[in-house]
Each structure stands twice: as C-alpha cells, then as structure tokens.
Protein: Mechanosensitive ion channel
Organism: Limnobacter profundi
Amino acid sequence: MELLKDPTALFLFKLAITFGLMASGFFVNRALSWSLRKLHPYHPEKARSQLVFLKNLVRMAVFFLLISVWASQITGAFLSVVAIAGALIITGKEVVLSLLGYVNISLSKPFRIGDYIEIGTQNGRVIDIDLLSTKLFEIGMSGKYTGRRLAVPNAMVLTQTIKHLSMLGKFSLYTIEIILPFKADTARAEQVALQVANTVSASWVEEADQYFDRIEVSEFVDLPSAKPEVFWQAYNELAHKMIIRLACPLEKRGDAEQAIYKGFWREFGPV
C-alpha cells in the first residue's frame, strides 16, 4: 500500500487494471459467443440477438469500471471538461443522438436481429446493433441482397420513419408494382398477373393463410387473405399502376418478386 502512495506507481497500477479490464471484457465476449453458439446451434438469429445484448452489456460494465478506476483523474480534469463541453455538444451531437437511439432501440424494440427493415432510404436485414450504429445486409430494388453491409447511425431511429417489413413474422405481405400504359388491356393484365402470382405462391399460400389466421386470433387484428390480389392506381397522365399483393415467406421475397415480374411480361407480351 505504501508503494501506491507514489504517483508514478499509482498511475502504473491503474494502467494495469485498465488493460486487465479491457482484456477481461474481450475474453468474456468471446466466451459468450462460444457458449451461445453451443446453446442455440439451430437458432443462429436467437443466439446472435442474445450475444449483441450481452456484448453491449459487458462493454458498458467495463466502461463504468474504468470510470471508477480513473475517478480521481476525471474529477481533477472536471473544470477542463466543462470548458470544452460546449464544443463536445456541437461536434459530438451525432454520437449523443446515436447513444440515445440505442437506448430507444433497447427499450421500445422497434426491430430485432434478423428483422427486415427500411429506415430512411436504407433497406436490409438487421445483423447487428451496437451502441452507435445498426448493421444491415443491404437489399436492393430487386428484392435481392446486394452483398453490401450498411452501418446506419442509431440517431436515424429518432429522426426517420422505420418500416418494419417482417412485422408479421414468418410470412409477410408484399406488393409488386407494374406500370402499364392506358392503352394496355387491363382486364387481361390483371388475369395474367393473378395467374402468375398464384403459380409462384402455390407452394406456401395455404400455410400462409393458416398462419395469418393464428395471428388474427392472438393479436386481435384483421389481416387480408394470403392469396394474391390485384389493385389499380393512376400513375400519371399516360399510365396505370397495377399493384399485386401477396403473402410470401421472408427469405423468398426477392425470388418471388423476380419470378412474378418475369412471368408477367413473358405471358402478357409487349404493350
């Protein structure tokens, strides 16, 4: 204890504790990752969701322990911190908002790991949520993965509309839009669209209908039929917009969309 009265020795001691805490946090996270993979070998999304939560919990615990270790130095530097607080608020506004966004995600849970979401102009599947950003596997206009990974600042949760594309769970409702000129035969277009959509969704539509029935009972909501339907809207002064709505498994959304587009134009032919 006498040794720790020496400022240099005390500083080195605190430095050693700091490295020890950081190393402990690293190894605890690795151990959690290994344990959860063993615990949920057939449910990777569940394991990843739990890992992200526990990993951030460990990070916060290490952070607050480090604060307590260096409390005296922090107290001594308090006046300096106050002096630069204004600058930090301005320059670090995005960081503060992102931290608040993470708190909002943790408490209100607008989405989870594995969900398909659209936030702002970004669209993809959630693969990670950390203190500052949410990671997405990007889904392009075609409904297919682009191979890119997006890091969306958590601050956007507070300022942008979030579209939850997988809110219903295993199956969800999707719309596909096809633009047709006014001169097109709309009756035939609707017939072809329904024929193609029914063919594409034939392998899962009955299961989707039963799934929606269970959701209606458990959540007290009124859901439309899982069977494909067609609606029309005016697009502009020259064309209609034909909207095909159908139920589809989350992981088959892109394939179904492409199959319906190709099948429709192959059967309907040029306008």
